[in-house]
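INTERNAL AUDIT FORM
Audit reference: QA-55
Scope: verify that the stored structure record matches its stored sequence.
Auditor: D.O.
Record contents follow.
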Amino acid sequence: MTASREVTASVLPLRPLRPHRDDVLIAAAGLVGGVVLWAAGVFTQEARLWNGAWVLVPVAVTAAMELVRRTAPRTALVVGTFALVLDQFTRGSLATVVMFTDLAYAAVLYGSPAAARRIPRVMGLLTVVSTAGFLGWLRTPESLLIGVAVGIVGFAPAATGALVRNHRDAAETARLRTRQVALLAEIDRSQAVTAERARMARELHDMVANHLSAIAIHSTAALSLDDARTTRDALTVIRENSVEGLAEMRRLIGILRDSGGGDPEPAAAPSLRSLDALLAQAGTNGASSGLEFTLDDRRPGGRELPAPVELAAYRIVQESLTNALKHAAPGRVFVGLGVEPADTGEELTVRVDSPYGDRPGPRAPGSGAGLVGMRERVALLDGVFTSGPVTDDDGHTIWRVRAQLPVGEERDGR
């Protein structure tokens, strides 16, 4: 309840306690005009119950209400109505009538929404009733002029206030809608920039980390082992990974500089057809660490998968091989691919098993960004990703990475 009150207080503008400068000028002009009309002997009626200076009392009361026409519009209209009634017992002043019309206008324009709806209806009903009443009482055509006067004094300014308020509210709504559209556009732009930066970070990590990990491991081996053959082999691997890593970096820079493409993924993105070359490179990089790499591809022959799915699967295998090169114990690294039925059609299953445990020789440090990137890639395709140590059928502990990537609805005839 407290929170609701705080929100309401922050949304609704507080009315100023001091009269507005324009209201002071209106009140002063009305009061001076009433005094001038009284001094000049200009009245709206013949002699009444109270004559003489009594006509200035309704003028002064109505002028005082002009000071609060914005801050307390309903009170100003009620008191102004009593002043107008009081004016009927004097000789009458045009200044009182004019200021009352302004109070009726201000009550609709600055009052509450409920008052803005009710006041024109009440004024319109009063105009109709007074016209019919005086017409039935006096039974003369001139009695219609009384109804017209009531309409001019009460209904016309109230209706004008309602029109002005509607236009003002419509303009404010349009301004708010424009601000909201601008805010949503800024949010969308920020989200798009964040998503693009995350995509570029994943691409950069997956393309370069494999080569840099091999360079780090083999350079450490070359520095720690005083053997010419080992050093030469290590330098050969380092050179190959440096050249390939530089080519990957150039490709990524070319993609970033190309502003004419609208595809979410580059056209030259690697696919699963390149897995043989990827595993061959991993075999070369991991030979000194006692790692062997095997591929079991059980996808249907000639089956083409969506480009985002193939790219995600390739990057998952690539990052898993990089992690195996960094952390896996000597042994066999298994890569398995297959297309299996799922609840919504079919899904591509990617599995990478690597030996889990302590390993001799140099190791490359890990940042943990690889697993995060793989998980993000799978999440973008609404897939399922798991990773962690498990026990295989032979009772050995292995590190398993498994990703299930939806590939679309199953079609007959395949």
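Auditor finding: record pair retrieved intact. Residues 1-13, 261-267, 410-414 have pLDDT under 50 and may be disordered.
Action required: none
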